[in-house]
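The instructor's notes for this session suggest beginning with a concrete chain rather than abstract definitions. Hand out the sequence below and ask the class to guess, before any prediction is shown, which regions might be ordered.
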Amino acid sequence: MRNIIILGITSLLTDISTEMVYPLIPLYLVAQLGATPGIVGIIEGIAESLASLLRLYSGHISDKFGKRKPLAIFGYSFSGIGKVLIYFAGAWPMVLFGRIADRFGKGIRTAPRDALIADLCPSDRKATFMGLHATLVGIGLLPASLLTGWLWTFFGPKAAFITGACLGLTAAVSMGIILGGKP
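After discussion, reveal the predicted structure:
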């Protein structure tokens, strides 16, 4: 149960970091970096397509080699790195690379993380623990929105981007440290 809660908190922090950055990107791209709405659509289309395709492959690799935790940590780390790239973006191509890195991480981590949770659960309580994990993830939406609004209002979009990046990287590092050699 402890490791499932750790995975849930890691996902919660990562989702808060994503929800702090993701809604701001279209506005930031157009208002600050001079991108067109078409560029915004291309960036999001590439990023989300990559995440969807990678879930299939990361799940296969996780099943084939049975190494779920390293893939999950790698994916969480890449999501944090993507947000750092967005923070440093001075033009829309860097935001594209940041979004690709972020969604690459999402695609790599999701299937192995879910399989890891399933591996950790007693067979008669899998639905309970998967529901616990989903709840921990879902409760992050409100704090993310409030924190983002406050940061944007008082410190500008870059403050929200770097705070989101720090939360995401902290989640990845703490997951690796806390779970240690377990599973």
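Then share the key points. The two ends are 13 Å apart (CA to CA). The chain has a mean pLDDT of 88.
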